[in-house]
Design a protein that fits this description.
By secondary structure, the protein is mostly helical. The protein is built from 4 helices and no strands. The chain has helices at 9-18, 23-30, 34-41, 48-58. The protein is globular. This is Helix-turn-helix domain-containing protein. InterPro entries: Cro/C1-type_HTH, Lambda_DNA-bd_dom_sf. Pfam families: HTH_31.
């Protein structure tokens, strides 16, 4: 089960692997640049909205557009 509060960079990487996404694909799904995404995987704590977005995508909701 994915815990959304707080989400760590390591959990983000685990999420990406489970979703079978490359870093660029995960970045696009979360609405961030590739560089920002790569930095997030190295952080100890991420903003709550990133964990919530990962949970939503994991449960079949489409990534936000725009």
């Amino acid at each position: 089960m994915l815990h959304t509060y707080p989400m760590t960079g390591e959990q983000l990487k685990t999420w990406r692997t489970r979703m079978r996404l490359r870093a660029g694909e995960a970045a696009e799904a979360l609405g961030v640049s590739r560089d920002t995404y790569r930095r997030m995987e190295g952080r100890l704590s991420l903003p709550k909205h990133i964990g919530l977005a990962c949970a939503a995508i994991s449960h079949g909701l489409p990534p936000a557009k725009g």
